[in-house]
Amino acid sequence: MKKRVLAALAVIGIMMLMGGAVMAAEDGGAGSFKDYGILAAGFGIAIAAFGGAFGQGRTASAALEGIARNPNAADRMFVPMVLGLVLIESLVIYALVVEILILFS
């Protein structure tokens, strides 16, 4: 687990260091702002999709575990679970909209 955290921090650090290259690039040349925007959009939607899928999996797992422990509470757990899933999915859709705006700006 510690190796994963260090790898994630390394990737984030590399992406932060690339910011200077984005601002220094001239329009139309190799490594232009548009190229890095496409790269950032790809990473952004991948992270959002992973986070959304992870959150939805944890939500469904917790709800099913609760229903397994107390089957009488299934009706009361269904609506909050679905509401949570909808909110998680709306965040992923919001990230998609932001990525589309990055690509077409």
Give the CATH topology: F1FO ATP Synthase
Work out the number of β strands: 0
Poorly predicted segments? none
Q: Give the overall shape, derived from the CA principal axes.
A: elongated
Give the amount of beta strand, in percent. Answer: under 5%
The largest sheet is: none
Give the overall average pLDDT. Answer: 81
Based on CA atoms alone, the radius of gyration comes out at: 19 Å
Helix/strand order? HHH
Question: What characteristics describe this protein?
Answer:
mainly alpha; single chain; 105 residues; F1FO ATP Synthase
Question: Can you characterise this structure?
Answer:
It is a single chain. This protein has 105 residues and is an all-alpha fold. The chain contains 3 helices and no strands. Helix 2 runs antiparallel to helix 3 (74-103). The longest helix has 37 residues, at 33-69. The radius of gyration is 19 Å and the shape is elongated. The model has no long low-confidence stretch (mean pLDDT 81).
